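User: Let's play a game. I give you a shape written as tokens, and you guess the letters that built it. Ready? Here's round one.
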């Protein structure tokens, strides 16, 4: 599989170091669409802080990817749903760390989650 980032520099606003406009996927034989994943521990309890929830989310995403024989290196698209816009920076830092600095197309949306204790929810698309 070949991943080709696309971030044109003319005629559009610039991408940032942690973001690209698009990712072309060539030669993939399968895709995994991961549901919005919350910062819940195995008992279903939400982490007490945003940091704890982000740690749990990325642990949960890695577990889901591993169940399909994939890793965070296979993520080609990511959407974050934040309860509050003030969570954007910490969410971005956690994403960059989880992806080892590899930029992917990403969107952050401020939305009310189904349960008020859920501060952030992240869904990903992976390809192999």
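Assistant: Ready! My guess for every position:
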């Amino acid at each position: 599989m070949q991943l080709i980032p696309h971030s044109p520099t003319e005629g559009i606003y610039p991408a940032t170091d942690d973001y690209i406009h698009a990712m072309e996927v060539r030669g993939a034989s399968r895709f995994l669409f991961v549901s919005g994943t919350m910062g819940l521990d195995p008992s279903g309890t939400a982490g007490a802080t945003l940091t704890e929830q982000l740690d749990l989310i990325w642990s949960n995403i890695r577990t889901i990817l591993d169940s399909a024989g994939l890793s965070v290196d296979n993520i080609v698209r990511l959407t974050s749903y934040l309860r509050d816009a003030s969570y954007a920076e910490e969410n971005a830092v956690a994403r960059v760390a989880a992806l080892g600095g590899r930029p992917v197309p990403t969107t952050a949306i401020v939305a009310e989650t189904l349960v008020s204790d859920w501060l952030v929810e992240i869904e990903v698309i992976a390809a192999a």
